[in-house]
Fold each of these.
Amino acid sequence: MKTILTILFIAIATTTHAQQIYSTGTVQGVNHTYIVKTRDFPSNNPLVSIANTQNKTSGQRMKSNRLDYVDPVLLGVKINNTALNNIFKEEIEPSVLQRLAANPQNYVGLIINFKQDGSVLDVTFSTQQTSTITPRIFEKIEDRIKSEITATFNQDKIPGIGAPAYTTFNFITKSYIIYFYKLKQVQ
Amino acid sequence: MNCFFKPRLWLIVLFLTIFSCKKDSSTSTHLHTDNAGVEIRNWLALQKDSTHVGELTSHIKWAEALTLAGDSNLYYYAVPVTGSDENYSPKKICRFLIVEAQSDKSQGYLLEVLASAKEFDQHKEELIKGFANINMSFSYEGDLSKFTISGDFIESTSYVSGKLKSYSKIYKKTSSAPKAILSSGKQVNDVCTDWWLNVNYTDGTATSTYLGSTCTCGGVIASRDKIGILSVKTLCGGGGGPGSPGDGGDSPGCIHQGSSIKNNKLILAAGDPCTVEPPKVKFNLCNGLSVQQIADFQSTYNYLTTGNCLQQALTVKIEGKEINVCIGAMSDPSAIAQSTPGNLVWNQNLVFYAGTLQEELFHQVQFDYYGTNASHANVEFEAALLRDMTDHAYDALHLASSEDQDRYRAFLDRITANNTGYPKTMSDIMPTPQDEASYFSLVNAYNNQYGTGSSHHGVVDNSLKPTALLEVTNLSKCP
């Protein structure tokens, strides 16, 4: 009986790990806690956002102290997409990556907020509620993004201000998306 | 008949010439010698353009050839050339064939002198050899223009009150064109040359006018039209005409890639230079654009014409339009451009960005469908949406909350099937009433990311659907 119960427990635990469903609340990584919020808009694949509780820009919007409008091209945020993709490829187990890539709908969205020096300030993930990527993996990915990814910005000076647009903002946002089936294609 | 040398005025002219000769002889710069005719004939004999040399020779008044001495052993051998002189009363144009010789080097050109009879009679020598003088010794009002013997414009100077006002020169910019595909299926490498008239004024300002383009897709014939602007015709094989190199006798037909442009009207001949296509869009460039800005604008527009399927579709959609392109100051210093129907004003201190130019040209399409009083928020969101679809980006709501950005990303991924296609019908964008509400909710989010005082903040129209965007996607060859 003990053996059967043990097997059942392992089976349930394994299944739970593989089919983890994120819901509103908090989840624990190794060193960080993440806030999970369900996204309240129509979708065939309900989404959640996953953000480190230590994020400094939570609830804040990107704002300029000089400009009330800016064309994205004037910010000109550029990052190394290949390096970012590689982080995901390297941190997600091949078998998990394989399963994720099997469905073109599977993705992870990123909103990366950068400091004016180009270093990463905060990262917020969004993904399906049924994502099989664990909080620990998100934590590893976040740590690597913060240490390995930097941004460059458009240095054109804004007329009337005499400085590049990005220097007038509290932080600079880049929205990015990782489709796993595309990651597999470039492997 | 040529200019002021009417037969019945010969005696007067002769008298004036002799008088002038005597007066100038003290400066040792003026010579009358038969040697001028010999020098000019020798120079003509070395020219390979036998057709134009023959035609020119028949219009030369050899008896009036003269030699003028310049600085540093430079000699001007000049002879009047008859022709259909334009009358710009009270001024006229006189033509001379001039050979400049110094040591063993010589160069020849046709010089057109726009001057009054009095100016010409009294200062002929100074006008002939005074090209590009900063100051004339008299109050000259007119132009001096140089042409090749085949009639192509080289350069000109313009004078007001005896002072140099402007200097004009045609310059060319060579660029690689897309590979042309001949009807045989063969590809030929083409190089196109864009021709510009650059005018520099002595007050420091400058203008530049695009004249046309020639492409090395077969023989090229260039000729000058009657007011002296370059006219370009390009032939591209076939019909016994010049053949494209390596086309194996294929007959892709004639090309008219560029033509003379007047009054600053710019014709951008886009696309395959081996395809017979009429000019697509007329851009009227304001005088305030610098040479760099014009070149920047042209290359940016050309980038769109050869860009991805949506960018190409947009440039096709605006075919037939005439758009004034000017630079100016913006009420909002960070605004890159402002559009009204048929007009585009670009921030004078910013370069032409492809994505923004795409948005501004899309506004011209929107004007056709929504008029000029449509909700600013709706049309700007739609333009930003088209741009994100083009760039596979998610920038439209970059100042919004992370939730709104996620929502926008999910919406964009849905209508583009994760960046693999583009919506062609309204039901692709809003298949259900819930999706329609979602679309306008995003327009609201777009609007609300700007403060109420922002030039980009307005009132959302919950009935204005993105019709113009679908007009572009439907015209495209995109999936």
Note: The longest helix of chain A spans residues 2-18.
Amino acid sequence: MTLYMLNFSLMMVGMYALIVKRHIVKKILGIAIMEYAVNHFLILIGFKKAGVAPILTKDMDLATFIQTAVDPLPQALVLTSIVIGLGTLALMVAIAIRLYERYGTFDMHEINRLRG
Amino acid sequence: MDKVLPFFVAIPIFSAIFMLLIGKWEKKIFPRIWSIITTATLVFLISLIWEKGTIIHVMGGWRPPYGIIMIKDHLSLLMLIIVNVVAFLSIIYSYSYITKYEDYLRFFSLFMLMLAGMNGVVLSGDIFNLFVFLEIASLASYALVGYGVGAEELEASFKYLILGAFASLLILFGIGIIYSVTGSVNMADIARFLINNSGNKAVLMATGLFLFGFGLKAGLVPFHAWLPDAHSSAPAPISAMLSGVLIKVLGIYALMRVFYHVIGVSELILNIFLVIGSLSMVVGALMGFGQDDIKRLFAFSSISQMGYVMVGIGLGTPLGIIGALFHLLNHAGFKSLMFLSSGAIEDETGTRSLSELGGLRQKMPVTSASSVVGALSISGVPPFNGFWSKLIILIAALKVGNIWVSVIIVLTAFFTLSYYLRFQKNAIFGDIGKKVEGAREVPIPMVVPLVLLAIICLLVGIFNHSIISNIIIPAQETLLDRSGYILSVLGNL
């Protein structure tokens, strides 16, 4: 349970940075931290203390295997989600650089030509 | 015919990559022709899976609760038709429109990726795959919104990107919670588990996360801040895709599928839908009222029209859902028509401001005629299609006895009519504005989709009965039949 609480507070840290900070790069870092927290949450779902890799070999008993092996599915999900996160992060950074070229600032409050 | 389903995703992805490879030698003509061929193929593929009931494709031969499946039922069929037809027309339109930009290749390549993502969302029978395809479509759309790389485009794209990434993370978090409760990512399997074990508090949290996430993707009112910026800054064919299709597939369709089939609707969720829908209708209509920029006006009107759809879904009665799905179909038609014609107007006159336009009827007769048809349809003038779907939603609300919602529906229809009349008066009719003097009719590839969409709006309005009984009612029956969905995927396991 402690692990889940810590994980959730990590997510809150990311959300704080995303909502409160004005600097674009800090907002991007906020998204990145939130993403780590969510990925970590997925890993925690399948986590078992002193678990083994989920590969069934011939000399293994099925009942103990089910008890000790970690759940492999969340790990596969996290791999996919990390790749997606990489794509999002790259696009965010690329747009941030272009924004700096156009506006000459990283302050989100000064980037406000669109409104209404 | 189940072998056809993966091609809806595979063809556009393959096409996007192939375009980039060949594009080294031929940058201008090839991508345009190639994407027309691709989207035409997709439209043709729909005819293969037309009247076949539910089709399930099992990927790699792994049985449903364990493996990945793609499922086409009547609801998916309705969405597939909307997505691919609007994409086809937007691609034809882009043939001339893209000459404004220097890089043709990446535009069409990203467009194809967005299309692949949307087809994937519609066909996926697996909640994590739904998320992956949703991200493919969203990432491509973030890049496409900022395609002009001007200051305003980039700003809109960045805002959209930050909020969209946030929404995606919440959706992923919700999927994680659902998986930890049910131990499955197959939507039918999750639904079966949740029917037998109801009342889990963690599922309630996932419900909230999904509402926030998909609601933000749909641009519904508390989460609508990104929509007017993104939709008005994107290139016109992309605006048509975003407003006509993307918010429906990633937002409304995903909400319908997740809440009606997977989690199951309760009184609470339906009431939240009703409140969000009514808010969207009112706020969208009021904000649209004061806009001078025509694309922003259309974007706010999208929020308000999505409110109608949410109210129809939130009523929860068969009639309400018929109205909602019919309005979904109609809105795809007339809103893409409006955005495409706004692109044509901007191309010729160089302005999007209502106060600088005027008298387009004399300079651009075909564009004006089709955008008048679109404006009449969206404001609900009989016999165009928007009238019938709004009428059905209104009757459904009255039948339930929900007076407040009915009043809001009527008032919003009145507001919609008045700001579209303002658009017609200031842009289409009246004296010729200063910037309109040099305008000519746009090239043929841009005119054809406008005329086709206008004809679609008129025909759907006239033959509304056969459209409803052939396409909408099967989709509505699928949507309300949760156990039928589970049975069709899992059989009697």
Note: Residues 151-182 of chain B form the longest helix (32 residues).
